[in-house]
Design a protein that fits this description.
The chain is mainly α. The protein has 3 domains: 3-66, no CATH class; 70-154, no CATH class; 162-289, no CATH class. Helix content is 45%, strand content 11%. A two-stranded antiparallel sheet has the order 1-2. A two-stranded antiparallel sheet has the order 3-4. It has a two-stranded antiparallel ribbon with strand order 5-6. β1 (53-56) and β2 (63-66) form a beta hairpin. The longest helix has 19 residues, at 136-154.
Length: 290
């Protein structure tokens, strides 16, 4: 239905009438009202047909018509589940613990089988709008649905180890200062895994500690945690963040190259430099320390 056209025709018809139109044209019969009130009611009904929240000017004062109160939340790439719950709590007024509880029911959320019932990594970033009456399960399930749509488009499930793809994507998301770096960072991770080298990523240690920060301490590096990729070879047991589409693409299609290292040479600009040998790596570290 063309709501704008209907509204225009309705207003034109009413302008030609000598008396207010029969209320039955728009609403169940009521006693006749003043022309301005009837006009506002007509406009309100047309707005209801269109959906949304509007404020209209008529002969009567402004009449706001709230059709469906909504919350809007934007989930950023790389947010951990804990940060996601805190932000959803802030927007909705629901306790963060209610989202944490909902996250434990993988079946209700519609998680893919390879997620192993764990939400981390599968709450897809983006902007979401939902009714204020939506439950934590419904809100999180919408994010999982969007992940599955993106993953299906990219062919994640068709890979031999789809969970590994999501884990690598979460590492790429955490380690890359820019989207342009993602395919190269993914290549470093793939190359190190192929050679049996430990990943030695600060981001995984910080995740295991439940901390945020650019660096780890010597004490942190000695942590006995499956997320300590300085101590243990291979991938961590699960995603460490919720990656976006670009990170998933990079995990699936890393750049061509033989790099085994990368170093942040300019923290302010987020500049990464890549190296293929320990000697090159040492030079980059030295340059970064200057």
């Amino acid at each position: 239905m063309n709501v704008e056209k209907l509204l225009r025709e309705t207003l034109a018809d009413m302008a030609d009438e000598q008396v207010p139109p029969p209320p039955a044209r728009f609403l169940p019969p009521r006693p006749a009202r003043r022309r301005g009130v009837a006009l506002a009611a007509a406009v309100a009904v047309v707005a209801l047909a269109a959906g949304g929240t509007v404020a209209v000017r008529t002969l009567a004062p402004e009449v706001p018509v709230a059709v469906r109160p909504e919350h809007t939340v934007t989930i950023k790439e790389g947010w951990r589940a804990a940060l996601l719950f805190d932000n959803l709590s802030r927007v909705t007024g629901k306790p963060a613990a209610s989202f944490a509880r909902a996250a434990k029911d993988g079946r209700a959320l519609g998680l893919p089988p390879y997620a192993k019932g764990r939400l981390e990594g599968f709450a897809h970033p983006g902007t979401y709008r939902f009714a204020v009456s939506a439950t934590p399960t419904e809100i999180l399930a919408a994010m999982v649905t969007r992940f599955r749509e993106t993953a299906d488009k990219l062919g994640v499930a068709s890979r031999r180890a789809p969970l590994d793809v999501v884990i690598i994507a979460s590492l790429v998301q955490a380690e890359s200062p820019t989207e342009a770096d993602m395919p190269k960072v993914a290549r470093v991770i793939h190359n190190r895994l192929a050679r049996g080298m430990r990943l030695q990523l600060d981001s995984t240690i910080l995740y295991g500690l439940g901390k945020y920060g650019p660096k780890v301490t010597v004490k942190d590096i000695n942590l006995r945690s499956p997320y300590n990729t300085y101590r243990y070879a291979g991938l961590p047991p699960g995603p460490i963040s919720n990656p976006g589409e670009a990170a998933l693409k990079a995990a699936l299609h890393p750049a061509a190259g033989t790099w085994l290292y990368y170093v942040v040479t300019d923290p302010k600009r987020g500049t990464l430099k890549y190296a293929t040998s320990e000697k090159e790596y040492a030079k980059l570290v030295e340059r970064a320390a200057e």
